[in-house]
Predict the 3D structure of the following.
Amino acid sequence: QVQLAESGGSLVQAGDSLRLSCTVAVRAFEIAFLAWFRKPPGKARRIAASIRYDDGLTWYEDFAKGRFTISTDNDKNTVYLQMDNLKPEDTALYYCAARSKGFGSYNFWGQGAQVVVSS
């Protein structure tokens, strides 16, 4: 079983930086990928970035490239999303997710952290 809990959501101004954290309670051998998704108001949820659990290989959606950085701590118990130069269109509910080995989609989700970027 995997349990995920996000923190760090906040109201910020355009141009600010913010770091989201997600504690990952998991048996390490179960996890293939960790990721951050976001759901803007009235829009569908989309992946922002992912990190391969075993070797730290990262991937970013186009809107996240150059501004967002996904990382884990040394123990891989926490996954972070560093967001720089935030824009109003980054306003969304941000979710942490985990994908188990052998699964084709993310099968564990946190409750979400709200990020609001004012102009």
DSSP finds no helices and eleven strands in the chain. The two ends are 40 Å apart (CA to CA).
